[in-house]
């Protein structure tokens, strides 16, 4: 999983890639004359965790190809990280349609990949910190950016059901959303066939 890095990390990656490419290993000691020990550890921890370099051996590292890094920045991370969440949530609106229809309806592409998630009002700070930790842009109520982002809908309470590994708005609510919008008629028909008309 690749994530965005601050400018100082980007400069160090550029330095290593310019000197070594992606095949030649390098050591942490190359930064000895540039930064202090604690900053050096911070830089390497950042580059490793963010997926920009990989550990080759106990004392050596290699750069990940820039093309792979750039492609990785646009990967869909949200479904995978939700298993780390400790507060209640439910994918809602078009995200729920997407999940309940087994992705027969897909609302996302590399250019724009929104996720709509209901959360409890009291948990807004938790969720903002959670997505910030993973470098995923997040907004309350509305917002947009290039690539993957999350729109949070804080409410007093909500119901959810498990679908695969994700918590989602109940099927009946999701089918109602799909039924009311002609654009999602294929997803609605899929859900009706899959779960039966009684779910609607």
Coarse shape: elongated
Q: Beta-strand level of the residues, as a percent range?
A: 15-25%
How far from one another are the termini?
A: 37 Å
Number of helices: 8
Instruction: Report mean pLDDT, rounded to a whole number.
Output: 87
Give the SSE layout.
Layout: H1 7-20, H2 37-49, E1 53-57, E2 60-63, H3 66-73, H4 78-81, E3 89-91, H5 93-100, E4 112-120, H6 124-133, E5 138-140, E6 147-155, E7 161-163, E8 166-168, H7 171-179, H8 185-195
Parallel strand pairs: 4-6, 5-6
Antiparallel strand pairs: 1-2, 3-4, 7-8
Helix pairs in contact: 5-7
State the main characteristics.
single chain; 200 residues; alpha/beta; 4-stranded mixed β-sheet; two-stranded antiparallel ribbon; 8 helices; 38% helix; 20% strand; elongated
Summarize the structure.
The chain has 200 residues and is an alpha/beta fold.
Describe the protein's architecture and organization.
The chain has 200 residues and is an alpha/beta fold. It is 38% helix and 20% strand. The protein has helices at 7-20, 37-49, 66-73, 78-81, 93-100, 124-133, 171-179, 185-195, and strands at residues 53-57, 60-63, 89-91, 112-120, 138-140, 147-155, 161-163, 166-168. The chain has a four-stranded mixed β-sheet. Strand 7 and strand 8 form a beta hairpin. Helix 5 (93-100) crosses helix 7. The longest helix is centred in the first third of the chain and has 14 residues, at 7-20. The model has no long low-confidence stretch (mean pLDDT 87).
């Amino acid at each position: 999983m690749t994530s965005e890095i601050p400018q100082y990390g980007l400069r160090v990656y550029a330095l290593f890639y310019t000197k070594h490419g992606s095949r030649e290993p390098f050591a942490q000691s190359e930064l000895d004359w540039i930064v202090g020990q604690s900053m050096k550890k911070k830089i390497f921890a950042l580059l490793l965790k963010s997926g920009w370099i990989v550990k080759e051996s106990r004392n050596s590292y290699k750069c990940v190809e820039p093309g792979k890094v750039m492609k990785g920045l646009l990967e869909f991370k949200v479904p995978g990280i939700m298993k780390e969440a400790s507060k209640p949530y439910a994918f809602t609106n078009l995200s729920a349609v997407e999940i309940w229809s087994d992705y027969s309806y897909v609302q996302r592409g590399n250019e724009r990949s929104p996720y709509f998630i209901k959360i409890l009002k009291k948990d807004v700070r938790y969720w903002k910190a959670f997505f910030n930790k993973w470098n995923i842009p997040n907004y309350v109520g509305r917002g947009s950016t290039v690539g993957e982002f999350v729109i949070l809908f804080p409410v007093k309470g909500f119901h959810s059901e498990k679908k695969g590994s994700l918590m989602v708005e109940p099927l009946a609510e999701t089918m109602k959303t799909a039924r009311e919008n002609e654009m999602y008629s294929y997803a609605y028909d899929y859900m009706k066939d899959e779960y039966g008309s009684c779910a609607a």
